């Protein structure tokens, strides 16, 4: 028989002391600083900011260090910290057209105004492990052009002018906020995009890939992918004006998808949208494919039963902190619950054996 | 530079860069708080398709405060990040810009910070430009 008991305090304290020692690793090696993590593991820090849904490089770097590089654990730390912060306001919508791009490519138009700008990309590398890095090779400095445009026009503006691309009606409605009001279905597109922007990269990648393989295919091309810094403006009510109080890096992807048309509208391309805080183009491309798949109802398409079309399935399973919280809780003590299960199965077995003996 | 522009500039600078410039002004007047520094977050909005309806993207940390100098001028700050020191120094500069030291403050603090920011942005744009693809159109034999 199992009995609920106290007595874990000392074991827990010892476990956490060992955790701290293990986190530090071999003490003959120098300890990592959070600045080193922010600078040299920048994309890990970027993922923690995006899925932690809080843009603060120092904080995210510290979380990565504290979590020993377990990024979902680091995201958990950031989400918990976020809940302690008072909300000082809401920004004006950022203008990604005014982005100072470090990267901007289009897979659909070769000759876009502003050009194809590769930026510091892994694309076209040979994906060979670089042993020179292990030997302490210091990289060469980046090339610098003599002059450069500060901003580069959006590809969709270019295509939209011809009416080939479905319009995105501009509005200034106050969007729903799932951090204030629990997500409810049906979810409109702004609410879906908020959920996707903080969703797990891997989950979105899998869903997006499933649409490419035929589960709700949308024939996506990357119309534009851009990474760079944007200004964030907030109103200062006491002073009666707004200021650009922050500069953040975002990754934006816009897909151009197979067209729709109707008796009223001539055929036109549709669009999927991905916008992610910090640098993460894999996630932003995935987000735009999933966003496009979820638009089946607005676009009058058939629901073919694909996972990526199912808003409830996507939105209620995309948050890795909700998911890991529920998943990992099953490893914590369930002695009393399990004791009830044990009693039940013993009784059922007794009854089954008794029936068997009676029949013989 | 308008007040909104210098407040933004002070807000976006790093705490270290601002502190380095403020040091050049020498000893600061004493101040009293109208609103003590408070760290929190701002919800950042994007737009569907970059141009459509607003949606909530995620939050960014911010710290705000307001103070009054001994001479009565008021300074406000709303800065990126969690540094109370950063917010305090930004508000001090904003207050000094209301008074008769504004030319000096502009020259010693705002202009250098603006130059740093412009240089940082220009460097990103020029590094990006150096990675721009220059397509070469290959001439096909039959066209020759």
Tally of extended strands of chain A? 6
Characterize the main sheet of chain B. Answer: 3 strands, antiparallel
Quick one: which chains have the greatest interface? A-B, 89 and 53 residues
Distance between the termini of chain A: 31 Å
Shape of chain A: globular
Query: What is the chains' assembly state?
Result: heterodimer
* Low-pLDDT sequence parts of chain A: none
Roughly what is the average pLDDT of chain A, rounded to an integer?
93
DSSP helix count of chain B? 4
The helix-and-strand class of chain A reads alpha+beta
- The total tally of domains of chain A equals 3
Shape of chain B: elongated
Overall description:
The complex is a heterodimer of chains A (360) and B (144). With 360 residues, chain A is of the alpha+beta class. Chain A has 3 domains: 9-82, no CATH class; 96-137 and 148-167 and 177-318, no CATH class; 333-359. Chain A is built from 13 helices and 6 strands. Chain A has helices spanning 9-24, 34-40, 42-52, 57-66, 71-82, 131-134, 155-160, 189-197, 201-212, 281-294, 311-317, 320-328, 335-359, and strands at 54-55, 87-93, 100-105, 221-236, 241-260, 268-277. Chain A has a 4-stranded antiparallel β-sheet with strand order 3-4-5-6. In chain A, strand 4 and strand 5 form a beta hairpin. Chain A is globular, with a radius of gyration of 26 Å. By secondary structure, chain B is an alpha+beta fold. Chain B has one domain (3-131). Chain B has helices spanning 3-12, 15-22, 84-96, 102-130; strands spanning 31-47, 54-69, 74-80. A 3-stranded antiparallel β-sheet of chain B has the order 1-2-3. In chain B, helix 1 packs antiparallel against helix 3 (84-96) and helix 2 runs antiparallel to helix 4 (102-130). The longest helix of chain B has 29 residues, at 102-130. The mean pLDDT of chain B is 94. Chains A and B meet through strand 1, strand 2, strand 3, helix 8 and strand 4 of A and helix 1, strand 1, strand 2, strand 3 and helix 4 of B. Strand 1 (54-55) of chain A pairs parallel with strand 2 of chain B, so a sheet runs across the interface. Chain B: Pfam families: PhnG. Chain B: It comes from Puniceibacterium sediminis. Chain B: InterPro entries: Phosphonate_metab_PhnG.
